[in-house]
């Protein structure tokens, strides 16, 4: 009569404990109900554990008198009024009654899968006056012809820009050659056999590469800058990647410079041109500063989670092989996304990569209503960060990935053994760097804005339902300038504690979520814990 029957599916002992403490009665899942019916109802047996988490539930919420099991048996034929589950199929939503409270919405894959988020954010400029390139690393769906071609162009242009950066870095403050590139070498007439001979002699003698490579990169970047400035509108300028440059040869030479240590020679004029071009491109490309110079990209199965199937690579041909389904047969052909390696110039802690897990709750989609959790935590990798080595232990911060790796002997001993930090520890670290204000002035506003932009883009695709709510976990990487970059948004973020920090935080966020979606209904002024209302249409 009080409509206090609940059902929990999955490893959520805290939710079960908190609801029982509120006087709610649990309706066991159908399989458990059948097990109970095989016993006399006064035996009150605890159902056999299907997973280790069931043991945690038993320890967390002991039932010495069996009263909860008895009540569960008595309400076995009643529909639950509150459902907390790992996942609810879209068809299940149609079976729910109006007063049912459920912790899921339908069709959230529009922003909680890598493929969905990539597609949704493409629409952001049409919805808001915002550019996704300012908070979300460039991303393409390889199963779509147009996007695959756009990625190939992006990879080539990034290689050209990276070559200019490498050339300037190598030149440094050392004297540069004043000799100009021979006229015979400046055009398309620079013969492949001459290039091949030069490469062979360069490799043997250890001398720098021929400046023609820099000339080609400069020409490509000039054309790209013209496109970005819309100077090509009336002139019909072709794409900079459709010029007479032999891109296969250019990329092979770029790989030698970026990854094999081949040298470059800059003329004085070229050095000045590189500096001017990169400065102008930075005004047009929000990600130029973070994209680094090694052209690292990360491949992800479009609908997987927990780091499954993710590969880091620096080679265009490897990406295209995956797109054609030559490797990773478990992933459906064409369901890959490729993303610019989050931030090549990222903020590390004690030389180690980390990312932030940030929770938020949506309590309504029409009007969109979003609550931001003011506590979060950091997850570290097991090995020191390096772009010269692309092992998963260095680059994927997921707990489900890192649990398989032992801490590297060359890891800084100040990295926590459980690879977790609270946001308070992170704020203290920022203060030591002289960035005490960065958390409240840059990081938190940036994370809030990125989350809201992602939700607005997907709003029309999600199945809105009164009475539902959902807790999400967003992952952010932090650049050297403390700017947060959204990596992905997870439905059903893990509540399985892997450290003392997450044991407390996960319990707190579950407690505060119930305050938000249950207690606040009967008492609008009640505490919502660490949840802050950041948006209501």
TrEMBL record:
<dbReference type="GO" id="GO:0005930">
    <property type="term" value="C:axoneme"/>
</dbReference>
<protein>
    <submittedName>
        <fullName>TTLL3 monoglycylase</fullName>
    </submittedName>
</protein>
<dbReference type="InterPro" id="IPR004344">
    <property type="entry name" value="TTL/TTLL_fam"/>
</dbReference>
<dbReference type="GO" id="GO:0015630">
    <property type="term" value="C:microtubule cytoskeleton"/>
</dbReference>
<keyword id="KW-0067">ATP-binding</keyword>
<dbReference type="GO" id="GO:0070736">
    <property type="term" value="F:protein-glycine ligase activity, initiating"/>
</dbReference>
<dbReference type="GO" id="GO:0060271">
    <property type="term" value="P:cilium assembly"/>
</dbReference>
<keyword id="KW-0963">Cytoplasm</keyword>
<dbReference type="GO" id="GO:0003341">
    <property type="term" value="P:cilium movement"/>
</dbReference>
<feature type="region of interest" description="Disordered">
    <location>
        <begin position="40"/>
        <end position="63"/>
    </location>
</feature>
<dbReference type="GO" id="GO:0005524">
    <property type="term" value="F:ATP binding"/>
</dbReference>
<keyword id="KW-0547">Nucleotide-binding</keyword>
<dbReference type="InterPro" id="IPR051437">
    <property type="entry name" value="TTLL_monoglycylase"/>
</dbReference>
<keyword id="KW-0436">Ligase</keyword>
<dbReference type="Pfam" id="PF03133">
    <property type="entry name" value="TTL"/>
</dbReference>
<feature type="compositionally biased region" description="Acidic residues">
    <location>
        <begin position="49"/>
        <end position="63"/>
    </location>
</feature>
